[in-house]
From TrEMBL:
Record's protein name: CsbD-like
Domain CsbD-like: 5-57
Gene3D superfamilies: YjbJ
Family membership noted in the UniProt record: Belongs to the UPF0337 (CsbD) family.
Species, as recorded: Nocardioides lianchengensis
InterPro entries named in the record: CsbD, YjbJ_sf
Length: 57
């Protein structure tokens, strides 16, 4: 996985964690769920890149 992809996935994960935390503090379940969705999407992308890397070797 390239550095750019790793950075994008890490940023998306961090943004998702921030959204989840803000949603939790403010009681906005929709924002909390959106943050969780963003984190899941970032983790899925990262896993996909890991699989690609495994087949390149």
């Amino acid at each position: 996985m390239g550095f750019t992809e790793k950075a994008k996935n890490a940023a998306e994960d961090a943004l998702g964690k921030a959204k989840e935390a803000v949603g939790d503090v403010t009681g906005k379940d929709d924002l909390k769920a959106e943050g969780q969705k963003d984190q899941a999407k970032a983790n899925l992308k990262s896993a996909g890149e890991d699989v690609k890397d495994a087949f390149k070797k």
